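Exercise 7. Predict the structure of Leucyl aminopeptidase family protein from Novosphingobium album.
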Amino acid sequence: MTDKNALIQPDRGQKAIPLHLVDKEGLADFLKGRPAPQRAALAAQKFEAEPNSHAIVAEGDEWAVVAGVARTDVLSSWCMARLAEVLPAGTYRREGGDPGAAAFGWITGQYRFDRYRSDAPDEGPRVLLSRDAKAIEPITAEAGAVELVRDLVNTPAEDMGPAQLEAEAEALAKAFKAEVRVARGDVLEREFPMVHMVGRAAGRAHAPRMIELEWGDPAHPRVAIVGKGVCFDSGGLDIKPSSGMLLMKKDMGGAAHALALARLIISRALPVRLHMLVPAVENAVSGNAFRPGDVLRSRAGISVEIGNTDAEGRLVLGDALARAGEGKPDLTLDFATLTGAARVAVGPDLPALFAREDATARALLEAGEAHDDPCWRLPLYGGYREYLKSDIADINNAHTNGFAGASVAALFLDCFVPKDSDWAHFDTFAWRPVAKPGRPKGGDALGLRAAWHMLGQRYG
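Solution. The predicted structure, encoded as tokens:
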């Protein structure tokens, strides 16, 4: 894989292939200023400045690229990503301005998951120059966080189980002198009983655990980041059909988001006291799997009747959110590939956002819009709490009427977050079913950049 840190370099006047960005409104003026051979070449290639289109023209003894974008005054993260995917290896310079936000897509457009490929092409990097040297490190870190999510989600479950998630947290702690605590075995059963019950059927090879990482000055505001780490979801005894299991390696996408966001917070030295929690399990089938109708204890003291063993993510998150709340955080964010209902409601591109505080929701939505990571708020409507009623326990983990599935799942989580806490929940897909410029098919970060920039505005 190409080193992302080499893809954006300071512009020191080195030789580079010119990149001319043009939008439809400015195309006529651009053509007036070009020599006749270039105008002819653009006409021959039917260049009309459509976004994601480009043409090659001669420029002196060399060649240059003319590329269409939606707007030249405000560049999106993705407006140059297609160029990074298709242009020959080399060094490029945007003429008439800096790449700005487009540098992000330039990096992510060159992402390849080739861990298991014996025929991975070695095309060499496309390097983009930036006159704003101070902007390189932040945007490279952000792109690296997104690519970490992609790597973790794309990795099959046999190589990305609970132990591997623990190893990722340990590597992060070692690199930045953070503290890691891991509860397993009897300790896990005692302190995080729902995590233990969901994961115990996977056996020793993929044994469940609760991973906690802490970093930062205790005097700074405490921020808890929680990620659902179901490394594979068979559905348990309410087993999924085979077609429903094909993408279940991605059910730890919430944990991938939490690890990537933690890396961003730590590497960029955001002045917070970070508490990251990842309940890591595999929802497997065996003789000791938890059953429909069982009643589970929880860390919060709430008893939970199991209406569906395939609604396991909310169980492990319940214990994690209860633990996070014990530290009295200023803000708690959780990420989870939680419900198919969220995908029905808002599709694969938009994480469903739930938040108790309007100001927090607004800040997350605005940060997402500003940084090309849009989210969509869905309601935490209290009237649907009745759907969680149980005849024999405090609550049930699944309702049967099929209504408002994403909201009901969020309301289940809400039961485990202290009532006075500022909390937001992302029900994210963590997957791109169709490739787009800068966003290949496969695992992806959805909601990560919105959360990161919101945190930067709030605490930075």
